[in-house]
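Predict structure. Input: Macrolide export protein MacA, 352 residues.
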Amino acid sequence: MVEQVRRVRAGWWGLVVLLLLSVGAAVAFWLRPRPPIVAVEVVRPQRLVSDVFASGTVRPVRRQILMPTALPAPVTTWYVHAGDHVRRGQLLAQLDNAAQRASLASARVAYQSAQAMFNSAQAQYRAAPPGLKPQFLGTLESARTQLAQARAQLAQAQAAYDATLVRAAIDGSVLIADDDGMAADGTPAPVLEVASDEKQVVVAVGQVDAVHLKPGMLARLQSDSFPGVTWTGRVASVAPYAGSAGDASAGQVAVTILPRGRFPVPYGYQVDVHIRTAAAARALAVPYEALVSAGGGYAVFVVQGGRVREVPVTLGLTTDTAVQVVHGLRAGDAVVLNPPPGLVNGEAVRVT
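Output follows.
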């Protein structure tokens, strides 16, 4: 009987040990190191275009602005109105010039008198016998001096009068023609503004983008006020400096674009600009999430035969979502996206 009990107990202990071994094996199986699961993207040739996007405003290429503080006298007559198109040299306004007109009339009379005196002295000198000419020379030179002085005074009077006649310095459209010279907030405002027919779009871009921009680059222009319409233009200039701290454009670089052909967007309107900086027809590119830092450069993990291989890469053209790989990859390579922390060269992986 005792022997039978011992045998039963031994059997139970054997079952317990076997059960514990099974549980331990199962735990060890589930806790064993597993290859990380990674997502990949296959590298294929694609057209890659790099654009710089910015928004700006339409401005005239040239402007003629007259502030009230620059007027020597009040405006008495306007010959144009806002919206008129004018030509260079056209009379736009006349200032109070009663004193200038009187001075000009007096200077003309004085010049005519001095001219008559000089003509008379010159005639007497020419008619005198050779031996008597020296007697008339002093009178002739005095008349010549008076004529020169009268001519200079007439020129000064004419210039003073002309300063009271405001003329167009450029061909363009009149934006402001108002002798009030005061803005709604009480600050001085132009009494006259003429904008040239030629328009430009001025945008502000960041310093990182500005270094890639050069005059002559192609640009596409669009405005919400003209839906579905696209114009072309070219970069005319890139400012050699960025805005100073404290300015509204601090850290930004002004870029000017000249539209091509007819550009009906009015002055002051907002325009979206896409500037083409570079393009590649068949570029090998990878998403930014495939890149990892490698020393002083970058690398990607390429999956081959169930394991990853860390490959240093040389980067080229960049877009908003991808970057060109100039050296290091071939078409068909599968690169790991968002490599897990601790992934090392040669490690086994599972691809989703």
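The first strand starts at residue 37 and ends at 42.
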